[in-house]
């Protein structure tokens, strides 16, 4: 793609801003900031990856993955700002998800142990885990507020923290995985995923592109399940005070 063609894609941003002005949504500033940030961030990442792909220093790759996990944990943690220690739990869950995923992919020889494969797939895995974590925390807040009376009654009857919160936790984990599951059900029929589309546009064989996309979809489903269940397991106590009462505000 030429620089002129890339610049011309700004017409889509202009259309978005015009719709915002027309409907008085007040999103023009956010759209402009988002456009600039995404362009700058992606360009920087492009140059960094170009450097990493041509170097033999594995710690550069580890550093990039670490930054991904840190940013993802911070962003997902915004969904539960008042819950102390939640970002650390998110980081643990995402790191475990990444470690399990990469161990299986590399152990079975599904991908080659090079930055060209590890970094993009890590980005997809960590991004999916971040979304699942954010959805889980968002749903947990709603669940706990709606079920506050039930949970407090169970605690009063002698239930453990885990027993009292179990049903809310299960519903939250299930809710966090729904977008991933729905995406798997409709992929290829309703949408052509980005990785597959990018490979086809770049000239790859469509069947080969589909094979890689199937791999990614299976990785996404696994990362969603691992992240949701692990984060729920290691974070549920944070929703309670030290003396075993449900925190105010869910």
From TrEMBL:
Annotated TM spans: 6-22, 34-53, 59-76, 88-111, 117-138, 186-204, 210-236
Name of the gene encoding the protein in the UniProt record: fetB
Subcellular location: Membrane
Record keyword Transmembrane present: yes
UniProt keyword list: Membrane, Transmembrane, Transmembrane helix
Provenance organism: Paenibacillus ehimensis
Family note: Belongs to the UPF0014 family.
Membrane topology: Multi-pass membrane protein
The keyword Transmembrane helix appears for this protein: yes
One of the Pfam families matching this protein, by short name: UPF0014
Protein's name according to its UniProt entry: Iron export ABC transporter permease subunit FetB
């Amino acid at each position: 793609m030429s620089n002129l063609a890339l610049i011309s894609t700004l017409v889509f941003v202009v259309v978005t801003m015009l719709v915002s002005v027309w409907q008085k949504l007040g999103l023009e500033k956010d759209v402009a900031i988002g456009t600039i940030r995404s362009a700058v961030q992606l360009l920087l990442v492009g140059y960094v990856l170009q450097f990493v792909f041509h170097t033999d220093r594995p710690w550069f790759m580890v550093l990039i993955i670490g930054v991904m996990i840190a940013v993802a944990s911070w962003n997902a943690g915004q969904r539960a700002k008042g819950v102390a220690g939640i970002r650390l739990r998110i980081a643990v869950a995402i790191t475990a998800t990444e470690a399990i995923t990469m161990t299986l992919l590399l152990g079975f020889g599904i991908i080659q142990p090079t930055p060209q494969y590890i970094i993009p797939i890590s980005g997809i895995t960590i991004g999916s885990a971040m979304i699942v974590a954010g959805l889980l925390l968002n749903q947990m807040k709603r669940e706990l507020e709606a079920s506050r009376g039930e949970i407090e009654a169970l605690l009063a009857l002698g239930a453990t923290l885990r027993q009292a919160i179990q049903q809310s936790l299960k519903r939250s984990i299930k809710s966090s995985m729904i977008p991933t599951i729905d995406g798997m059900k409709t992929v290829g029929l309703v949408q052509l995923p980005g990785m597959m589309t990018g490979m086809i546009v770049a000239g790859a064989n469509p069947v080969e592109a589909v094979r890689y996309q199937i791999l990614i979809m299976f990785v996404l489903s696994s990362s969603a399940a691992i992240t949701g269940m692990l984060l729920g397991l290691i974070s549920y106590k944070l929703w309670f005070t030290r003396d075993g009462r449900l925190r105010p505000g869910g």
